[in-house]
Design goal:
The structure is a homodimer. The first copy, chain A, is mostly helical. Chain A is built from nine helices and no strands. At the A-B interface, helix 6, helix 7, helix 8 and helix 9 of A face helix 6, helix 7, helix 8 and helix 9 of B.
């Protein structure tokens, strides 16, 4: 969407960034239009200018941008090692570092929003399912467990463990759930 | 806390039940005092009568009651089988049934609240961490992987997978993430 002369360049991007950060902190309830305006230092009208669909539109686009970014993060972590068990440990170690950096105050935006879904926000379900499917495919591309179905199932297990470790890390204020999961799940491909 | 004559018997329990259901559906933001009043059909004043600490008190007590109930649910599922791999599959199958029953609209209240934590609700972190620790101990009590540390770590992995499968099941509207995780994690104790 073109930016009108009245809007500062990059304000659309700033709003999306602010939305991603708010979603990671507290899900949809933390990412109201007023919260986004405050966090991105943008005039309120500019949110509706850039996102005429309002909260669902901006949340959906933020989740898509976030999904792409996390896919890159996953790919980079997995590509950093050769042997399959090392890849698994590196993946979980990368996420452990990510939660610790955020002081255990930020989780996966797909996780936070998934657990917030209700009748009003159900249209976001497809975006969330697509994000998860994309991550699963990214993980699967780095392993070969003999058959595509088995490799895909294993990738699904890793993804499940990542989402669960985000929950536990947040409550326990510790990266340990990621490391624990990585160590165990590496043994499945050793 | 004693119920005053002005309060209908059981209204405290109804409010706690309503809070648990709201937390499972959408976390803290879905469990405001007004939501609780509406869902429990209780007079607004009675919430503050029973829970003078307001939202944090009622959420904390609801989470404690929920944690105890889930601990029983976990124990029952694990006790239903003899062999360790069968126990693991039965546990995940029990949760798969639980999410399907709820039409994939209810998650783990500890998961939803963990991903909502912020400065205002940080006092709930201890309740959440205690709930997770209690579940981990319950799971660990049903396995023996050679050492207490190893058994405890494996129980932690199962717990991580349960929380993650709740996230994925909700977004994917499918019990499959529970079954997938159960099948894989059973192989670790086979």
């Amino acid at each position: 969407m073109p930016t009108s002369p009245a809007q500062p360049a990059g304000s659309r991007e700033r709003m999306l960034e602010a939305t991603i950060a708010l979603l990671r902190a507290g899900g949809l309830s933390a990412a109201g239009i007023n919260d986004i305006v405050r966090a991105s230092d943008a005039p309120k009208g500019s949110v509706y200018h850039h996102f005429p669909g309002g909260k669902l539109q901006i949340a959906g686009e933020a989740l898509e941008a976030y999904a792409e970014r996390v896919r890159g993060f996953i790919g980079q972590a997995l590509a950093s090692r050769q042997a399959a068990p090392d890849k698994v440990r590196a993946l979980f170690e990368a996420f452990a570092g990510r939660v610790a950096e955020g002081g255990f105050q930020r989780s996966c935006a797909v996780g936070t929003v998934s657990l917030d879904l209700d009748g009003d926000t159900a249209p976001l379900r497809t975006v969330l399912a697509d994000a998860l499917a994309g991550w699963q495919a990214e993980i699967a591309g780095h392993f070969d467990l003999g058959s595509a179905a088995r490799t895909r199932a294993y990738a699904g297990l890793l993804l499940t463990a990542i989402e669960g470790a985000y929950v536990r890390s947040r409550a326990e204020a510790s990266p340990q759930p990621f490391r624990e999961a990585g160590a165990w799940l590496a043994t499945l491909v050793d």
